[in-house]
Amino acid sequence: MKKQRICIVGDGLSGLMTALALNKLEGLEVQLISRKNKHSKDRRTTAISASNYEFFNKVIDKLNKKLFWPSKKIDLFYETKDQNMNFLNFNEDSKNLMYVFENNKIKEILINEIKKKKIKTLQKNINDLKDLDGNDIKILCLGRSSKIYQSIVDKRSLNKDYKEIAITGYVKHNLKNLNTAQYFLKEGPLAILPFSKNNFSFVWSVNKDFPTKDINSIVKSKISKVLKTNKILISNQQSYPLMLNLKRTYYKNDILILGEGLHTVHPVAGQGFNLVLRDINKLQKIFKYYTELGMSLKSTPALEEFTSNRKSENIITGIGIDLTHNFFKQNKLLNPFKETILKNISKNDTLKKISKFISNQGLSI
Ligand SMILES: Cc1cc2nc3c(=O)[nH]c(=O)nc-3n(C[C@H](O)[C@H](O)[C@H](O)COP(=O)(O)OP(=O)(O)OC[C@H]3O[C@@H](n4cnc5c(N)ncnc54)[C@H](O)[C@@H]3O)c2cc1C
What we know:
Strand order of the largest sheet: 6-5-11-12-13-10-14-17
Helix content: 25-40%
Oligomer: single chain
Number of strands: 17
Bound molecules: flavin-adenine dinucleotide
């Protein structure tokens, strides 16, 4: 039987992983289209759950495990009047809770794997969907805000501008046994994500009116205060505007949206790419089922099945993250009660187990 042609547009983490995952299936001929002009470097790290790390291992042969820094412990702190109160700890003795990787290094690994597997690639800026004619299924991984999505989406998306930015960067340090941590500070949540013995990355979400003058020294003094050390060296500082966008339409005819274009969420819970990986995992399973039956994907309800499988989890998680973000936001009336609520959360083992399970497996298990 003639191979079915799948084209994937966009070479961010979502597009690269989708190309590799679908290329594993017999009967599909995958092509990856990326932009002609290379974009600026992505100097962030990404935290993924243990189950998504397993998926990475299934998709990439002989994955270099050294590029994924494991974490057995996650500490959560809330800034009160006179201290950072440690209100919740997640820990596992026997297995890892999550893994942190540097986006640039993993993109390089994925691109090399694409070359190794001889997946067809094409450099072209796609401005018109007609450019993709001739493919059986077209998958758009164009990031959070491509205008091209407008011709696919008919229902209104759930949208919110957080009017915040995430300041990100790398920190060199000589602290011993630094854990992954989230500090809910007055200015906004600060995530500390170790990715090697003496390096961690941070994501600090703050109001977009945050003073840009002297921003480097403000960030340095805040991190020094939180970690109680001045011996840190910050590099690769960048900032990203923050928004919530949850699409309600996932596909039209034979064109599917995937990645940040389907769901852009606040980074406070580090869930954006985790949701994408669960989407790709599910899409691979659905496509496998139909191709093994010898069916043409175009004439099956594969994209509808994908939508009904993934949409509710993506929307519920996105809204859950938004509620978490709102809870920790400064609010004069609520602030006095938060300390009491958080002290009680730490005593609730069931809640801890549920949140650990959901952040690893998602909601649709
Ligand atoms: C500050 C921050 C921290 C984060 N931390 C985490 C975390 O710890 N854990 C987690 O799970 N998630 C995290 N995320 C989310 C995660 O970064 C994204 O989900 C992930 O990068 C996937 O992006 P993407 O590939 O869908 O989009 P992008 O990276 O935006 O890629 C889109 C690609 O499409 C290409 N493109 C666009 N238009 C065209 C066109 N017309 N023709 C051809 N190509 C085109 C672009 O060049 C680009 O390569 C974070 C997000 C932010 C903002």
